[in-house]
Amino acid sequence: MAEQRMYHAPGVDLRELASVVSDWFQNQKFETQILEAPGGGLVVQARQPEAWRSILGMSSALNVTMTPQGENLVVQMGAAKWVDKAAVGAVGVLLFWPALIPAAYGAWKQKQLPNQVFQLIDQYVATGKVPVITPAPAPAPAREAPAPATAPSGLKCPSCGQTVREGAKFCDNCGAPLQLTCPQCGATLRPGAKFCDNCGAKVEKVTGT
Q: How many Å from the N-terminal Cα to the C-terminal Cα in the chain?
């Protein structure tokens, strides 16, 4: 169902208020239009840009209908189809009864937009001044992924300390074998190992030829 609030707002400038609401929606990146409503009222329609509508499936517009009643102002909010201004006279019932699309209005409420608009109108009616509209923050630029840490260019020869290419079996600087085995138990030793991690035997440094 549509939501409705009544404000005691004698002398309210309805057209200025409609412009304030429209400007607020535009600052939130919505398309807007202001239409004449029966009884001397105005309707602000807001909808998401076409690209968003195709992604989110929210094709309806949010209607903010403002109608003066003596010293009071009645504000109705709900969802309806976006209306071509040239066809307003033919679709008055659909346009001015937003409760006809309750499911669509539920989607708007999930985004807290109706509450924010009511707060905007509250502030305008209470102060008689145009509220300061804060532009919607721009999307944060995508951060570049940090470059992966540079891996060591190669292994170190256990004999001379020279860097050797990965997969090499012998050092191209001193000729020492790179894949050493424990002289005690025959287990493969890690480069630079001083003791065998299998039997604990001390590893003698290999010298090149």
A: 91
Q: Whole-angstrom Cα distance, residue 185 to residue 182?
A: 6
- H/E stretch holding 75: strand 72-80
Phi, psi values for residue 170, rounded to 5°: -135, 150
Q: At residue 11, what are phi and psi to the nearest 5 degrees?
A: 75, 15
Q: What torsion, rounded to 10 degrees, do the Cα atoms 60, 54, 20, 3 define?
A: 30
pTM of structure = 0.54
pLDDT 10s digits, 52-105: 554 445 567 888 999 999 999 999 888 877 777 655 554 444 444 444 455 566
The number of distinct structural domains making up the chain is 2
| Full domain range(s) for residue 202 | 153-209
Compute how many other C-beta atoms are within 10 angstroms of the C-beta atom of residue 194: 10
Q: What angle do CA 128, 133, 31 make, to 5 degrees?
A: 110
Which token pair is 92?
């008055």
pLDDT in tens, 107-134: 666 678 888 899 999 989 888 777 765 5
Q: Which residues contact 173 (CB under 8 A, 6 or more apart)?
A: 157, 160, 162, 164, 208
Q: Does residue 157 share a domain with residue 89?
A: no
Residue carrying structure tokens 């409503």: 37
- 13 and 73 housed in the same domain: yes
